[in-house]
Amino acid sequence: MDEVKVIEIKKSVFADNDIDAGNLRKELKEKGVYLLNLMSSPGSGKTTTLIRTINLIKDKLRVAVMEADIDSDVDAVKIREATGIESIQLHTGGMCHLDAEMTRQGLDNLPMEGVDLVILENVGNLVCPAEFDTGSCRNAMILSVPEGDDKPLKYPLMFSVCDLVLVNKTDVMPYFDFDLEKCTGYVRMRNPKARVIPICAKTGEGVDAFADWLLTEVENWKK
Amino acid sequence: MDEVKVIEIKKSVFADNDIDAGNLRKELKEKGVYLLNLMSSPGSGKTTTLIRTINLIKDKLRVAVMEADIDSDVDAVKIREATGIESIQLHTGGMCHLDAEMTRQGLDNLPMEGVDLVILENVGNLVCPAEFDTGSCRNAMILSVPEGDDKPLKYPLMFSVCDLVLVNKTDVMPYFDFDLEKCTGYVRMRNPKARVIPICAKTGEGVDAFADWLLTEVENWKK
Q1: Which end of chain B is less enclosed by CB atoms within 10 A, N or C?
Q2: pLDDT surpassing 50 at residue A152
């Protein structure tokens, strides 16, 4: 298999990220491309979730993935090997988040011919990525069971900017004190409209609900 | 029980954090106070580990804790209720890390009479806290088993600045693909001198080794 493309992301020069993000979103709308910004803590299972999900939707949508990481390109390789779709690695060079201009640098390096859905796997961090609009159509995040059900109390901004919270690793629920109902309540405190979907990326349980959500989102975006 | 003190941390005005951190470390050495900077991802078990450890050493050392969080003061309350030691909450107001000046703001609000050891529980984040010297005598971090053994590959700076890596939640090792030997190898790639101690904060297994490390560290610092 070919080596994955690795893009060394440069620091943005734009002063107003919100304006830049708004412009990027408008361009994506015109092109009929849906961009999802997926955030989480390190090790919550973003890559495994993406592999499962992409394999469920790749016959219906043309999907591409941008994997942001400080270093290493293990994730982009994993995604490509497990799904066969186009996947590139964005190296942030120590930067803790992506903004709209950095996201654009990634999109410029992705073969976009016919692509319906681009998923940006943001840097594993519950703090900084929440502060920067990437220009995505939606923000989603993964909270894994071992992290604890109290995370919406501790990382308020992350949960208030996300429209979808995937609660991953439900298979290990019996070994952790994790109360899904309580967690959902905390998520709604931050964002009353947020959708919460419990999944287990390892076994595939619940991933179809995320896939359906994505298919509907992309369909509505293209209208 | 009294309410815990909550300090709203202000942004630093100092241009050179390294100089400021060096000064703070010198002051701590003169006072015979050991400061440990404990970092990790969200939900890796920092607070539970601290409770277990403090209860093992509090008869030998006078310990105080500073809990940094963007919001909420659940951790400082937990620590105080479970150990009886002095514990304050530092609110970072959305900031993703602590630097030396912010750490000093916390120390200034802690009753320091007779204190041998101060533990700073940094913001749950594997990226930004690694970039800022807090003025601590040592950096330590917790990597929990569910996060995966590949984290030293993905967050190189964090692992290179830490002298001690606690691998927590070893009780759930059978349910995750986590190879302790491989992980230790990755840690040593980043910092050949790093000590790796596997622990289970929930059951207490291995925590005595961390407690012994701390006792020796504080003893050497006071010489």
Answers
A1: C
A2: yes
- Of the partner residues B125, B147, B154, the one whose CB lies closest to the CB of residue A127: B125
ipTM surpasses cut 0.90: no
Residues in contact with A220: Cβ distance below 8 Å, sequence separation at least 6, in sequence order:
none
Q: Name beta bridge partners: B13.
A: none
**B157-191 confidence digits (pLDDT tens):** 999 999 999 999 999 999 999 999 999 999 999 99
DSSP letter at A220?
H
The radius of gyration of chain A from alpha carbons, rounded to an integer in Å, stands at: 16
Tell me, letter by letter, the H, E, C secondary structure of B25-45.
HHHHHHHCCEEEEEEECCCCC
As given in the structure block, the two tokens for residue A180 are: 């899904």
Q: Is the pTM of this model over 0.90?
A: yes
pLDDT digits (tens, 9 = 90+) for B110-129: 999 999 999 999 999 999 99
DSSP state of B135: S
- Chain A partners of B124 at a C-beta cutoff of 8 Å? 41, 126-127, 154-155
Question: Which of A147, A158, A159 is the best residue to mutate to test the B interface, defined by the most B CB atoms within 10 Å of its own CB?
Answer: A147
Give contacts of B71 with chain A, Cβ < 8 Å: 153-154, 156
According to CATH, the topology of domain A9-142+205-221 is Rossmann fold (3.40.50)
At A78 the three-state DSSP class reads helix
B158 → chain A, closest CA residue: A94
From A156, which residue of chain B is nearest by alpha-carbon distance?
B71
Residues of chain B with pLDDT under 70: 1-2, 12-14
* Closest C-alpha to B158, from A61, A26, A189, A123: A123
